[in-house]
Amino acid sequence: MGRWMKPEVYPLVGAMAFVTSMCVFQLTRNVFLNPAVRINKSDRSKAVLENYEEGEKYAEHGLRRFLRTRPPEIMPAVNHFFSKHE
Questions:
Q1: Which helix (H) or strand (E) holds 67?
Q2: How confident is the model at residue 49 (pLDDT cuts 50, 70, 90)?
Q3: Domain residue limits at 70
Q4: Per its UniProt record, what PANTHER family does this chain match (predicted)?
Q5: Is this model's pTM higher than 0.85 or not?
């Protein structure tokens, strides 16, 4: 029996699995947590939902609050090294 997939393809399969899992995560998050997505019939019948608090809670999630306290640098040590080095 021969292999059905070559070993050279493993990194591509891993990358595609990662991207697919990120898409599934984002879609699931939007379906269950986004206040603009209306699943039940009573919410869909309303033209405008008055849910400002729920929208603020969705937009100001924990990761965004955490990142506001951090400096806007990806690698501070490398940035410091190249900006202070003469």
A1: helix 62-68
A2: low
A3: 8-38+51-83
A4: G-BOX BINDING PROTEIN (PTHR33417)
A5: no
